[in-house]
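Write out this protein's structure.
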Amino acid sequence: MFRVLIADDEPIERLVVSKKIQKYFPEELEPVLAENGEEAVRLFREKQCRIAILDINMPGMDGLEAAEKIRKADSTCSIIFLTAYEEFSYAKKAIMVRALDYLLKPGAEEELIAVLEEAIRLAEESGADAAARTENPSEAFEEEKNYDNLRIQAITENIRAYIQNHYQEELSLQAAAGAMGYSDAYFCKIFKQYFGKNFTVYLTEFRMEMAKKLLADLTVNVKDVCQQVGFHDSNYFARVFKRNTGMTPSEYRVSLLGKSGKA
């Protein structure tokens, strides 16, 4: 079980977040509550928390300053900002302390749960033993940055490979998330983050690229192309293809023949 710090000067906000954590992660997370930034930093160290959920606007030491001190004390912890402030300057500072996420109040419950799932995953991977961490802060930062890059690369490659292997099937976001061991909410979040578009758009674009390659082969019937890229209704396939390319599959094939003829 990991300890998660919840720092907010509003008692009700602290209670609401704590209740959500106890509801969804009763065996994984133990809430530790703080009412200001100074108390947050102190409790984070004393209780050896692995995750910190911080409000920004708190009396005395605000959440951003507290996050900086927490990051210096622990290069591998997950910092999550949960705030009512949407200002770009705040989000920029959140990036500088390598915050895991920046969530706005009042936010969707699914967003917080998804981020906490990722924070737990990171805590499990990095380990709870502080003695095993690098003592040099600059080395720790570089190691963490390199680790993050490798991890992102591995996740994107795994997702890309799964789609390549299953795009011919009736593939859904839920099926892909389940196959890779993620919740639907978390998978949806990281997919948009790493690919810059949602799962359905990416899958459709990938299928269209595969369809173009098949249409270039004159031995493959257009109706067979439909089946081979995961569509079971040829009319629907034609509409999607035209929406993405500006041409029907048959028109696209004719255009390829025209280009080859000119060549």
